[in-house]
Write a structure and sequence with these properties.
Layout (H helix, E strand, L loop, with lengths): L1 E6 L7 H14 L4 E6 L9 E2 L6 H13 L2 E3 L2 E2 L5 E3 L7 E3 L2 E6 H6 L4 E5 L8 E5 L25 H7 L1
Parallel strand pairs: 1-2, 5-9
Antiparallel strand pairs: 2-8, 3-7, 4-8, 6-7, 9-10
Amino acid sequence: MAAHRFLGYPEGDRRRASWDFLRQLSQFVSIPWCMLGDFNAILDVFEKSGGSVRPRWLINGFHQAVFDAGLIDIYMDGYPFTWFKSLGNSRAVEERLDRALANNEWFRLFPNAKVENLVMHASDHCLILLTKEPTQNLVLRRRNFKFKKARCIEPCIHNVVSND
């Protein structure tokens, strides 16, 4: 199993290089893997609030790269945005740039995984925490009933055994 930290290019004209890297990496990884970090991209228009509209080609390009790499966005709990600029004034912008992506094999191991958005005060990015709960193979064993014949001489044993 592999986990990688990712930092996407912040410049719009270099985003394709980040996306191509995701595609290439997925070709070489044949084990369960997860990628976590600042992708500097959004998967949907609803992952941005304020500021100018994100060009559709940027959203579609990132979305297609995630799909091509066979990755799935891990559910995020908490505040929906992980990056902000100019909070508190009319030019405020918030976006979900930080996330965790994983392949199907990783999700089979950790179907209840989620990302928690932890608000940070010392950075313009929120800290994201990946929690994974591996599936537990519960093996239910049938317990054998054990009885010591010596107990038969006790006066109330028939009541105890019949009530249990």
